[in-house]
Amino acid sequence: MSEAAPKIRIRGLSKAFGPKRVLDSLDLDVPAGRGMVVIGGSGSGKSVLIKCILGLIEPDAGTIEIDGRNVLTMSRSEREAVNAHIGMLFQQGALFDSLPVWENVAFGLLARRMMRRAEAKPRAIEILAQVGLGPDVADLSPAELSGGMQKRVALARAIAARPDIMFFDEPTTGLDPIMGAIIDALIVAQVKRLGATAFSITHDMASAQRIGDTVAMIHGGKIIWVGPAHAIRESGNPYVDQFVRGSSEGPIKMEVRR
Amino acid sequence: MTALLDLLAAIGRGLFAVLSAAGGVTLFALQAVSHIVRPPFYPRLLLRQMLEIGYFSLPVVALTAIFSGMVLALQSYTGFARFSAEGAVATVVVLSITRELGPVLAGLMVAGRIGAAIAAELGTMRVTDQIDALTTLSTNPMKYLVVPRVVAATVVLPMLVVVADILGVLGGFIVGVAKLEFNPGTYMARTWEFLEAQDVISGLVKAAVFGFVIALMGCYQGYHSKGGAQGVGAATTNAVVSASILILTFNYVITELFFAR
C-alpha cells in the first residue's frame, strides 16, 4: 500500500540566530486533512518552525514542501499564491487595530480582490456567526473586545478565504480554561468543515489533545517523537513524559536565556 | 598598546554600525520606491495618510510659521537698524521664510508629529505580529504600509510649506505694520520686489525631500523595531532624531545645488 503524499514535508530544516541553533536539521511530515500539533517547551523552536513554514523567517538550510512544491525557492508572487490557501491564527490574535472587526475578517477577501467592499461586510458577518459572534461586533474596534472575542475574530479572519491549510500558534494562550476549550472546539469544527490540514504549536497539553490527531515533540531543534494524540501519555519517551507531566525532574533542562 | 587597540576596535565597530544602518536604510528606500510603481495600489490608504499627515499637521505648521515670520521681522529690524538698513526687513523675511525657515521648520515639526507616529504605529504592528499577519494574508507590507505613507508625506509636505510660506510672510507683515510702523503697501511691494520663483521652488523641492525622509525613517525604524514596548519607544526616538539630522543635512545639500555660485 503506497502512503499518500504529505501536505507539508519538511526536510533538514535548520535555523540559527548567532551562536544559538534553534532548528537543527529538522524533519517532519504533516499528513493532508489531519491535525498535527507540535509541542515543546518555551524557546524550543516551535514559533521559529511555524514562521519558517509561513515564509516569515528564512531558514539557513533545508526544504519545506507544500503540496510537493518547495516554497523556499518560490518567487514572492508564487509564495503569495500559496499563502492565499493558508489561514493563520496568531498567538495574540494580531488583529489590525486600525480597522473595524468586519474589515479584519474580510481583509484577505478584499486584499485578494475576491469581492468588493459592499459584498464583503455581509460575508464577514456570516463568518463571524460561524465563530459564535453576532453582527453587533462587526463595527467595533478590536480594542473594544475581550481576549476570547479577539481570538474568535482572529479565527474568523483565518477561515474567511476557506484555506486548505490552517496554522495555529498557541491558540489557547492567555485564555481561561473554559474559553480555551471553546476556542479549541471552534478550531476543530472549522477545520473539519473546511476539510483543511491543521498545523498547531502549543505547550498546553489539554489543547494539544483536543485539536490534534498527531502530536510531535520538538526538543533541541529536532523532532524527537511523533505519535497519535491519544497515546501521548504512554509515549515511552522520557522527554515527552517529563513534558506531559510538567515535571522539573527529567532530561529536559530549561534554559534561562533565549 | 591594548588601550589603543580597544579604541580602534570601538571606532571600527561604530563605523561598521553606521555603514550597516546606512546600507539598510538605502535598501529599504529603494525597495519602497520600486513598490510605488507596481500594483496593487491602495488609493484609500493613500488618501487617509494624506489627510493624517497634511490636514492634521496644519495647525502646528501654521503656528510655527506665523510666529517665525513675526520674530524674524522683529529681529531683523532691530539688527538692521544698527546700520540703517531697516528697509530690507520685508525682503529678508520673505527670502528667509521661502528658502529656509518654511521648509525646515515645517519639516522638523512634521518629523516630530508624523515621523514619531509612523514609527510607533508600525513598531507596535511589528511587535504584535500584525505585519506578519499581513504577509500571511497575501498582502505585501511594503505596499500596504510603507508606500502610502512615503508617497503621502512626499506630496503633502510641499503643500504644507506653501501654507507656511504664506503665513510666515503674513507674520512678518503683521509685526512690520502693527509694531514697526511700516506702510502696508511699501512692505508688500518690498516683499515682492526681490522674490524670485527659484526661492519658492527650492523650498518646495526641499519640502518634498524632507517629506520622503520623514516617512522613510519612521517606516524603517518602526518596521524593524523589536523587543516590545521598549523597542517601540527606541524606534520612535530614532525615527525623529534620524529624520531631523537628515533634514538638516539635505537642507544644506539642496541649498548648495540651487544657490551655489
Summarize this structure briefly:
The complex is a heterodimer of chains A (258) and B (261). With 258 residues, chain A is an alpha/beta fold.
**Percentage of residues in helical conformation of chain B:** over 70%
Number of helices of chain B: 9
Helix content of chain A: 25-40%
Most strands sheet of chain A: 6 strands, mixed
Low-confidence region ranges of chain B: none
What's the shape of chain A?
Answer: globular
Q: Strands, helices and their partners?
A:
The complex is a heterodimer of chains A (258) and B (261).
Chain A lengths: L7 E10 L2 E11 L4 E5 L6 H9 L6 E6 L2 E2 L5 H8 L2 E4 L11 H5 L1 H5 L5 H14 L16 H13 L5 E5 L7 H18 L2 E6 L2 H7 L2 E6 L2 E7 L9 H8 L13
Parallel strand pairs in A: 3-8, 3-9, 6-7, 7-8
Antiparallel strand pairs in A: 1-2, 1-4, 4-5, 9-10
Helix pairs in contact in A: 5-6, 6-7
Chain B lengths: L1 H35 L6 H11 L4 H23 L8 H39 L2 H7 L4 H38 L5 H10 L3 H27 L4 H32 L2
Describe the protein.
With 258 residues, chain A is α/β, with parallel strands linked by helices. Chain A has a domain of 67 residues. Chain A has nine helices and ten strands. In chain A, the strands form two sheets. Chain A has a six-stranded mixed beta sheet, sandwiched between helices. Chain A has a four-stranded antiparallel beta sheet with strand order 2-1-4-5, covered by helices on one side. Chain A is globular and about 55 Å long. The termini of chain A are far apart. Chain B is mostly helical. Chain B has one domain. Helix content of chain B is 85%, strand content 0%. Chain B contains nine helices and no strands. In chain B, helix 3 runs antiparallel to helix 4. Chain B is globular, with a radius of gyration of 22 Å. Chain B starts with a helix and ends with a helix.
